[in-house]
Amino acid sequence: MPLAAVRLNPGIFREQEEINARYLDSLAVDRLLHSFRVTAEISSSATPYGGWEDPTCELRGHFAGGHYLSAVALAAAGSGNTVLKSRGDALVDGLGACQKKIGNRYLSAYPTQLFEHLAEGKPVWAPFYTYHKIMAGLLDMYLLTGNTDALKVAEGMGQWAQGFMSGFSVDQRQRMLRTEYGGMNEVLVNLAAATQKERYVEAARLFEQPGFLDPLAARRDELQGLHANTNVPKIIGAARMYEITGERRYREIAEYFLAEVEAARNYVIGNTSLDEHWTTPAGQLKGTLAWSNAECCVAYNLMKLQRIVFGWTGEARWMDAYERTLFNCRLGTQNSQGLKQYFFPLGAGYWRAYNSAEESFWCCTGTGAEEFAKLADTIYFRRGSSIYVNQFIPSTLDWKDEGIAIEQVTRFPREQGTTLKITASRPKMRAIHLRIPGWTTEDAAVKVNGRVIDAMADPGSYLALRKIWHDGDTISVSLPIELRQEPLPGDDSVAAALYGPLVLAADLGAGPPDGPMRVVHGRGTEPKDLPAPGPLPKMGAIQVESAPELRFISEGTGAKYRLMPMYEIADQRYSVYWQRESPG
Known about the structure:
By secondary structure, the chain is of the alpha+beta class. It has helices at 12-25, 29-39, 63-79, 82-102, 113-120, 127-145, 148-166, 170-176, 184-195, 199-205, 210-217, 228-245, 248-264, 296-313, 316-330, 363-371, and strands at residues 6-8, 380-383, 386-389, 395-399, 404-409, 417-424, 429-436, 445-448, 451-452, 461-468, 474-478, 483-488, 491-499, 502-507, 542-546, 551-556, 559-565, 574-575, 577-579. The strands form three sheets. Strands 12, 13, 14, 15, 16, 17, 18 and 19 form an eight-stranded antiparallel beta sheet that branches.
């Protein structure tokens, strides 16, 4: 469903959306534009931001001209935020002026010299990575808010990139593509879709790596040693190539990759990686629980891929996976000031840590700003006149073209189910498909207008309700939730607890004295003098103390543990995994 057709209703998701919007609103357009103007030799007296947006950082511009534009465009579409839309429009105007001043369709916050270094094999961080973010932000401003100037600027950038890459031999291009280039293939395909110009599909092919894609096409996992977030965007680009070109090989690559990472390389929270890399063979995560697990950018990109693949298959497992990552690896990674996490520590006794407001601007700051602006984008899907209810989030869908609206009323997961209230100005026969998640039980039930329906779908599938829907019709869905455990891949002696889709974390006491929002250091979020992770707790049977309050307890070896959903962990030290008494 178009993002503009869905609005979040009161609840934790809308609270997080509003926190993120306030953070975006705190940033000044002139400061975001500073390095772009300096590069274009346009006078700027603004104070630049720091961290990865510092005028000396080779990644400058990735947030200021890229993620920020995407985030405000998503906020404008998803919540009708006109203030942030005006910020986006002003930023587009400023970027357009910089591109015009440079004069060759090029646009970035750093000079073309960085691309020359790339071509010459000199050390350089990731110039095309940033270039992609800027193009993607401009395209989002066009697609989500209708800013036609943004499309013109993006198209100029696409033409420059195609001209630059076309000037090299295949071998030299492949050497250059060893340096992280974000989703250049994806954004060029998206530009082709927006303009209906085949040249941008051909431009996207210039950013393909057979050495990475061919093993996946042959269903071989050769991911060990690779940087996770460098490579997931390439798969998103392959998925979009399938959608635009119809070439089946791209779809097979995307589906195999996603299934392999989900089954063999993910932690229980729905995310992957250690020190930003896949460091082990498939299915062997023993000994990898640390501070630097699960770079948050990777979760953002995996969710994008899950969303795409679900759109092809309609398989509930991808929305189950999306839900797990959403609740456990996205919620909680933004604090009350709108600051974001980088890593997601899974070593016992660690805590959350966030960026600073004006001196960080990591990649995860940017993807987080986008994520918390688009929390409504996957709740509902459509197929013809049919509606798919994928996520249990308080929200309202208003499908004006079909004359039907659905208000979803729920306190899920504090409530074990949801209620859909229907308004239909043009009653007609249609199917409403309800996800019956894989984590529920066979006692799940559905009522239509108070009457239990006879048929029921198995957990892990969709139930289709077909009838003529009228004003006042209601659908009530009961989804019993149970406790279960899930071992760490490759180590049955270690497990995590889940309650439905929720990962439970053991509260291990107060966090560090200066709090989890300490100013963090370096390229990621690792504080100085980081202690070694503690031993995993040994917990006994977990009991539900209060289902509506999501409180759980466990009597362990010499200790009593309080457990809670991971997304509710704030300042505490915690542990997601524990030692099992025995593999059974």
